[in-house]
Amino acid sequence: MSVIVTDGLTRRYGRSVLALDGLSVEVREGEIFGFLGPNGAGKSTTIRLLLGLLHPTMGRAEILGLDSERQSVAIRGRVGYLPGGIALYDSMSGEALLDYLVDLYRRPPVRRAELLERLELSAVDLRRPVRDYSRGMRQKVGIIQALQHDPDVAILDEPTEGLDPLMQRAFYDVLDDLRSNGRTIFFSSHVLSEVERVCDRVAIIRAGRLVALEDVGALLARRHRHVEIRVRGEAPRLDGVAGVSKLVTRDGLLTCELEGDVGPFLAAVQRSDVADLTIEPAHLEEAFLEFYQDDRPAGIVGTDVGAVRAG
Amino acid sequence: MNTVLLARTWEAQRAKLLAVALALGGWGFLMPVIYASYGAQFRSLMESGVIPRQLAEFGGGDIFSLPGAVSLGFIHPIAVALNCVFAIGFSTGSVAGERQRGTLEVLLARPISRRSLALTLYAAIVLFVAITTAAFLVGVFVASALWGVSAELGLSRLPLLWLNGVLLFAAFGAIGLAASVSFDRMTPVLAIALGFTIVSYFVDVLGSLWPDAKGLQPLSLFDYLKPSDVLSGTATPVDFAVLAGVAAAGVAFALVRFPARDLAAPS
């Protein structure tokens, strides 16, 4: 079942700025969906359209079967939202702020205690006014206000901004738990490593257009890994082996690029006397940068293109 | 209307509300005291011709009676400025201020419609000006009783005077709210709301002091605040209706404009 659906979603600012151009994606129930793009790519515009803060120029969006423009109040009752660079009411204490924000949902804060414990915010911290909070503490409160009422869908815009590595890890664990409980998470970020770490699928947008939509695993599998093999004696014959390219052999050191299934490569290598073997893992960053090369045509790429209807 | 938001707004504003109410109560208290203590001296001073007679027209032209003194106190710049703390200060910041600080985004992430938000904020504006206006009249009432002049006041007409004042500042509040939902920054909102109020006041004062400008007075909202007429029992429903109409128009504009707006990411 698709929890979030956008269909040809387009947003113009004035006549000259096309912030989002025919975005069509579907986010499935129970997945963490990464939404990648650099600043100004259209990530925040997409989120604002989903929540009904902006009106689309063309196209439509739905969350949980509800129309984002006409039923945005009902949508917001079932969604938890963490805005990027969240601003909070500085004069309130953390506790009063969280109470106020959850009261507006008219739902109990069933996850608050667990989130406070995981994100290491104490009762003493919560009694202090928000104006005294560090950036990291503000971000923690932002995360808690978005998730404390256990929403069906969480829309998180740059959620780990300002969190230290330990807290980032704790937050990833929270996301894993939410996923196991069937919650759907729309995770907007430009931090590639965390998208790689937590997301099931990723959409990449560039200049308002969707350029890729794919399983994170599949995207990584298609990336080139860099391989170095030091051999004693005769080098393995890797010409023509599936997935191997840019093969260079010199003084017993063999380097190449490897894409896709490693099976044929390993089968070819195991016949040689290998002294050392290094395969550098593929990173999403390479895929991301590839999609952002300026001369690359803005078509849609991915194994998941069936879920994409080009706008 | 959202009761959680209303309760939070009350909590956030109550200290300021108390301060303004005390100040207006004190100001209201002064009117009967000044009238009882110095009214006769003022009258003889005015009748001596030292002060131009036209100045006595400010506030309804009856400054030598207790109702006249109360009227003068009601539309005095000090009372107007204190009432405008909420009618203009709060109303202009209610949406544009939150937008400028970035907190509106957090608020609108909750299941509250923009119309409900605007209506709730307007309810808060009316509540606040109702309290501050009442504080002034309570001060008048207490001082009149203490100085033994309450029989001159016509206490039964004070509720109608309260309504007249509430409607005036509710109208300014509606204009402030309408401006507030229309912009992302406070500067243009304050310029519009404060500019309208100041020009309105200036036109009314000008019309009361300069006979040639009297024709301009109906263009000012202050022209429909008639404390002297209310206390003397000669006020007409038209004054109340005009103020209510302006308030309704301002709120209607806000209710249409706010949901239609695009709220882009704060820059």
- Calculate Rg of chain A over CA atoms: 23 Å
- Which protein chains make the most extensive interface, counting residues with beta carbons within 8 Å of the other chain's beta carbons? A-B, 31 and 23 residues
> What's the helical proportion of residues of chain B?
over 70%
Report the sheet-strand fraction of chain A: 25-35%
Q: Any idea what the radius of gyration of chain B is?
A: 20 Å
| Spans of at least 5 consecutive residues with low confidence of chain B | none
Described by the principal axes of the CA atoms, the overall outline of chain A is globular
User: Which structural class do you get from the secondary structure elements of chain B?
Assistant: mainly alpha
Number of strands of chain B: 0
Q: How would you briefly describe this protein structure?
A:
The complex is a heterodimer of chains A (311) and B (267). With 311 residues, chain A is an alpha/beta fold. Chain A has 11 helices and 14 strands.
Structure description:
The complex is a heterodimer of chains A (311) and B (267). Chain A has 311 residues and is an alpha/beta fold. Helix content of chain A is 30%, strand content 31%. Chain A has 11 helices and 14 strands. In chain A, strands 6-7-8-3-9-10 form a 6-stranded mixed beta sheet, sandwiched between helices. In chain A, strands 2-1-4-5 form a 4-stranded antiparallel beta sheet. In chain A, strand 7, helix 7 and strand 8 form a beta-alpha-beta unit. With 267 residues, chain B is mainly α. Chain B has one domain. Chains A and B meet through helix 1, helix 2, strand 6 and helix 3 of A and helix 1 and helix 5 of B.
